[in-house]
Amino acid sequence: MLATIGYLGPKGTFTKLAVDAAFNGEHKESYATIPECIDAVEHEEIDIAVVPLENAIEGTVQLTVDYLVHQVRLPIVAEIVVPIQQHLLVQPTFQGSLGDITEVHSHSHAIAQCHQYLHQSLPEAKIQYTTSTGKAAEIVSKSDLSIAAIGNKLAAEVYGLKLLQENIHDYSNNHTRFVVLCKDETKLKIKHPVSIEKTSMLISLPSDQAGALHQVLSAFAWRKMSLSKIESRPMKTGLGNYFFIIDVDQPYDDVLFPGVKGELEALGCNVTIMGTYPVYKLTI
Ligand SMILES: O=C(O)C(=O)Cc1ccccc1
């Protein structure tokens, strides 16, 4: 039975690019928002969800992290990394110049990735945030106004838009990490070579936080476990209360990770394994 894969839609998003690059043959279902896509796996309406987690320029997609931490705990079973190129998309009939564009629509991360370009080349255009770059392209395709979207070439193709300006992202080497969420890992079939295996953890500190973060980092350091990311996010229980997301560049094992978890819990931390999973670096 083929798996059904949900992704942040509509068609033409970078998430759809990632899904098309990583999976073939499965049924693919578009969702308007990241929470709706995650909920669909939780409610077992679909088998797998693919949602954006982090961009190399703008950082973490907070909505994804907060939803996975505070609302729906689903295991991360894989990560897909794809290169990102942002282009300025307009109606094919648009004959004006950049100065004639009154609005620029896109996902907040896409806008942020092009902040300098927008500041220098489109200072008068009103920024309109959308749930995805594909949604922005869809809006422009249905409008007869002089408005633009920031998105990819797939979006230009599926919505019949033209590229007014290519590669408007402020920094090159732009990539986004997408997480693959699934309750039943047997449904997951990605036929690409694995780049690395990693384990993501969620750690909250004890009420007496003096030196606690140093103790957390020490628990990994003396075990020579390499951390590729540590990021704090609000617990949403009050100002100054954080949890930490830590990525460890190795798969879960039966010695080191249980040792870290036991040591940190003995120090009063809460420790959750968000997933241990392969990372696939894809070209598109
Ligand atoms: O909006 C999209 O196309 C997405 O898939 C989310 C996103 C937005 C900006 C960069 C990477 C992914």
TrEMBL record:
Protein name, entry field: Prephenate dehydratase
Domain Prephenate dehydratase: 4-183
Recorded metabolic or biological pathway in which this protein acts: Amino-acid biosynthesis; L-phenylalanine biosynthesis; phenylpyruvate from prephenate: step 1/1
Site, as annotated: Essential for prephenate dehydratase activity: T176
Annotated SUPFAM superfamilies: ACT-like (SSF55021), Periplasmic binding protein-like II (SSF53850)
Keyword Cell membrane: no
Superkingdom of the organism of origin: Bacteria
Originating species: Oceanobacillus jordanicus
Catalytically driven reaction(s): prephenate + H(+) = 3-phenylpyruvate + CO2 + H2O
One BP term from GO: L-phenylalanine biosynthetic process
Entry's Gene Ontology molecular function annotations: prephenate dehydratase activity
UniProt keyword annotation of Flavoprotein present: no
One cellular component (GO) term of this entry: cytoplasm
Signal sequence segment: none
